[in-house]
Amino acid sequence: MTDSPGVVSGNCWFELPCRQGRRRQYRRRIHPAQEPHGYVDVARLIAALIRHGDYEQLPNTPSAHQPFPLTATGEQQARDAAGLLRDEIGRQGWSLASCIDTSSLLRAWQTARIIADRLADLCEVATEVACFDDLAERGLGSAANLTLSQIEELIHRDPRFPDVPPDWKANSHYRLPLQGAESLREAGERVASHLQRRMNALPEATGTGWLKLFVGHGAAMRHAAWHLGVLEFRQIAQLSMYHAQPVFLERLPNGCWRHIGGEWKVRMQDSRDLD
To answer: What CATH architecture does domain 44-266 belong to?
Structure first.
């Protein structure tokens, strides 16, 4: 059998999605001896990517690993996110996974904690919050929390290295030549691997499927979406993420991913956003 989007060849495979009311489901064709009709329903696997809320970011400094808390605005954004998630869960009939995965950075953990507490009030569901370094923003190594000008100056003064390129901050391929630094591509690969691993670990769902929440950082998550085949490479620089507004990605039965809901933020051409 020839593979196509939404289909896995072999002893069992998945049909393309069919509509049942407003909800999309998948059906798996299996051996007739296992199921008289030859098909069983397959629950969906949905990942909600959530950028942290607004926080007390240092001016003219890459967001990266800044350790500062949410602002009052950021706290409200996280509470609002819980309402959006409650509404989407109700519309789709998804089951909420019991653990929210979050970056270990304070602004992300606070966002996840507020969402968990608010969902407990709104939906009467208990979710734990677990921190993972794999969900952190791109690391700048020994240049962490320095201003843009300080980073450029220290590289300029080091005779071992050429000056940083003008677009170094947003260049997906560039990695500062400093201990512990990584490129945006590398950060995205790290996040994408975490998403794959944690979605694969979900138990078999009943009903229409699982929704699992991941709270992290805009640049690393956009690059993860590219690694997963959801965004084209050119879109990484064109898009950002709204604070604490979920973007929903579905992991299809054949292992592919697609964007199914939630809006990406379109960047202005002259944007100097330091996320």
So the answer is: 3-Layer(aba) Sandwich (3.40)
pTM score: 0.85
Spans of all domains in the chain? 1-42, 44-266
User: What DSSP assignment string belongs to the chain?
Assistant: ----TT---SSSEEPPPEEETTEEEEEEE--TTT-TTSEEEE-EEEEEEEE---B-PPTTS--TT--PPB-HHHHHHHHHHHHHHHHHHHHHTPEEPSEEEEESSHHHHHHHHHHHHHHHHHH----EEEEEGGGSPPPBGGGTT--HHHHHHHHHH-TTSPPPPTTTTT-TT---SSTTB--HHHHHHHHHHHHHHHHHTSPPP-TTEEEEEEEE-HHHHHHHHHHTTSS-HHHHHHEE--BT--EEEEE-TTS-EEEEESPPEEPPTT-----
Q: Tens digit of pLDDT per residue, the chain (275 long)?
A: 333 333 332 333 333 343 333 445 444 443 444 444 444 457 899 999 999 999 999 999 998 999 999 999 999 999 999 999 999 999 999 999 999 999 999 999 999 999 999 999 998 888 999 999 999 999 999 999 999 999 999 999 999 999 999 999 999 999 999 999 999 999 999 999 999 999 999 987 667 899 999 999 999 999 999 999 999 999 999 999 999 999 999 999 999 999 999 999 999 765 545 56
